[in-house]
Write a structure and sequence with these properties.
Blueprint: E1 17-19, E2 22-24, E3 47-49, E4 57-58, E5 71-75, E6 78-79, E7 81-82, E8 88-91, E9 97-100, E10 106-107, E11 118-123, E12 129-133, E13 137-141, E14 147-152, E15 158-162, E16 169-173, E17 188-193, E18 199-205, E19 221-226, E20 229-234, E21 240-243, E22 249-253, E23 265-269, E24 272-276, E25 281-286, E26 292-296, E27 305-310, E28 317-323, E29 330-332, E30 338-340, H1 344-347, E31 362-366, E32 372-374, E33 382-388, H2 393-408, E34 414-420, H3 425-435, E35 441-443, H4 448-452, E36 459-463, E37 469-474, H5 479-495, H6 507-513
Parallel strand pairs: 3-22, 4-28, 33-34, 34-35
Antiparallel strand pairs: 1-2, 5-6, 5-29, 7-8, 8-9, 9-10, 11-12, 12-13, 13-14, 15-16, 16-17, 17-18, 19-20, 20-21, 21-22, 23-24, 25-26, 26-27, 27-28, 29-30, 31-32, 31-35, 33-36, 36-37
Length: about 525
């Protein structure tokens, strides 16, 4: 292993890594061009574009929200899937699915998933959806959002990408989640289904690394489809491949990135298991100019990113842009003009009427004041709620930053509370005492995930004055995220109230005088 600062690299992480806001599967690909066979025969001879180095043109991004039509490519580092008529679909930080038009206006797709939580989604040519859900299903909906076909997803964690030419869907292992698995069964890297969900072909065979528990990790990436060509970018391998629908390799592009990993390894040092890998390709999409846009890390870091623009016909690298964040929000117009801006400028387009209500609660308050707190106590305030546990390592890093954020916001209508997931209140109390925190900590006793369906800790939610959800954040990515949270809080405070609060007496004053005034029983 190369020694260095573990927090700035992809190494030293046993569980799926929190990269940006979504869970990032630390995935590599052991698949080479010679592994992409056509029905057992020899592959076509690919055009290999190796060591392209710097692009001939440097792409500079405008930092204002576009006044012209432009399509969203990434939102906080999450790829926006192409739909019809310039629309895109993208998940926000909380895992909520949105559609975004070419004016960057958001709307909620009308999906009737019978309580299922979508994990990956792509729009179909007839206005319906292909979705994978958290229970391992792959479902097809019609244009009204009703499920018309339900299948078992091909992989435990599956991503889906529409084939707009055939109406079918391509599936592959998700680069956001993985499990350690001793899996020696042969399975394809990419699976194709027709518009009815029937099997229509496969591409590639998994490569089992020397450390076989890394097999699932070693066979994932990103897929995009343009016409009759499939493009594949493995996650920790510096490659971009163009393939025919049968799996023949058309061309392979490499940029000479130093962090490319041949295959991941599981390393045991001093009784601690770490994964030896570096992320490379973070997302792949086609712009409205019909060029390929590949988001990557520029080297041995997860705090920056680079965007490379390729000619899809021959794999030539045309332009490159660099960003001082690994989770950029990017849009591009039909002429290839690139925009980078704050994700809040997109998410603020969510109509207040579309905000969902926060689930009710009535919980014991930990600390000297004791008492109870319920959702009704939050009416009239802009409230930041952080879910945490004493055993959550990122929580220990994030919590002091959130405490400082709380202390720096002086608006009396802002409040900060936390919800603790420890089953034993003594563990939560020891955590608070260690840092000297004084904010309200509500005791969930290990039952909060069932009520709020968060994917992992830490989990942060901002509520408006009517206790509706403004925005959510999964995980912690550092100071940049804290400043984003601050900007959303300030914007919501500036929006003003719509009733439900007596401004003659500040919310902060009320809670400071009586931090736990209620005597209801915990639910």
């Amino acid at each position: 292993m190369i020694e260095g600062q573990r927090e700035d690299t992809g190494r030293g992480i046993l569980r799926p890594a929190l990269f940006g806001i979504a869970f990032l599967a630390v995935a590599a690909i052991g698949l080479t061009a010679r592994g992409l066979l056509r029905g057992g025969g020899e592959p076509l001879s690919p055009l290999t574009i190796a060591g392209v180095g710097d692009a001939p043109a440097r792409l500079l991004a405008d930092t204002t929200v576009p006044a012209e039509r432009a399509e969203l490519l990434w939102l906080d580092g999450r790829t926006a899937q192409r739909g019809a008529g310039g629309t895109r679909s993208v998940f926000d930080a909380s895992g909520r699915l949105w559609t975004v038009d070419d004016r960057l206006r958001l709307s909620l797709p009308q999906l009737q998933l019978e309580g299922r939580v979508p994990e990956s989604a792509t729009q179909t040519t007839d206005g319906g959806w292909w979705l994978t859900t958290s229970d391992g299903a792959l479902v097809r909906t019609d244009s009204a959002g009703r499920i018309v076909r339900e299948l078992l997803a091909p992989y435990e964690f599956t991503d889906v990408v529409s084939d707009r030419q055939t109406g079918g869907v391509w599936t592959l292992r998700s680069p956001r989640n993985f499990n350690f698995r001793w899996d020696t069964l042969p399975s394809p890297v990419i699976t194709r289904l027709d518009q009815n969900g029937d099997h229509a072909g496969t591409i590639g065979s998994v490569v089992v690394p020397a450390h076989v528990l890394m097999t699932e990790l070693a066979n994932t990436g990103h897929v995009e489809v343009l016409g009759d060509t499939l493009f594949y970018a493995p996650f920790i391998r510096d490659e971009l491949l163009a393939l025919t629908p049968r799996g023949d390799t058309v061309w392979v592009a490499r940029r000479g990135l130093p962090q490319s990993t041949a295959e991941p390894r599981l390393v045991i040092e001093d009784g601690t298991a770490t994964m030896d890998y570096y992320p490379v390709n973070l997302g792949l999409t086609v712009g409205p100019d019909r060029l390929l846009y590949l988001l990557s890390t520029p080297g041995f870091t997860t705090t920056q990113s680079r965007l490379d623009v390729f000619d899809p016909s021959v794999g030539t690298l045309l332009r490159t842009a660099e960003f001082r964040t690994s989770i950029p929000t990017l849009a591009v117009n039909a002429r290839g003009r690139l925009y980078q801006f704050d994700p809040f400028n997109v998410l603020s387009g969510i109509a207040v009427a579309d905000r969902e209500g926060f689930a009710p609660f009535s919980l014991d308050v930990l600390g000297p004041g004791g008492g109870h707190m319920s959702k009704d106590d939050l009416v009239g305030t802009v409230t930041l709620i952080n879910f945490w546990a004493s055993w959550c390592a990122p929580c220990r890093i994030e919590m002091p930053a959130l405490d400082s954020l709380d202390r720096s916001i002086t608006d009396p209508d802002f409040r900060f509370i936390t919800m603790n997931e420890d089953e034993n209140p003594a563990d939560a109390e020891a955590f608070l005492d260690e840092f000297g925190f004084e904010f309200p900590a509500l005791l969930g006793l290990g039952e909060l995930k069932h009520a709020y369906f968060y994917r992992g800790l830490p989990f942060t939610v901002l509520l408006d004055r009517n206790t509706n959800v403004v925005q959510r954040w999964i995980g912690y990515t550092g100071a940049e995220q804290i400043e984003l949270i601050r900007s959303v809080i300030e914007a919501e405070l500036a929006r003003g109230g719509e009733g439900g609060h007596d401004h003659g007496r500040s919310a902060r004053a009320e809670r400071e005088e009586s931090p736990g005034a209620h005597t209801e029983h915990q639910h």
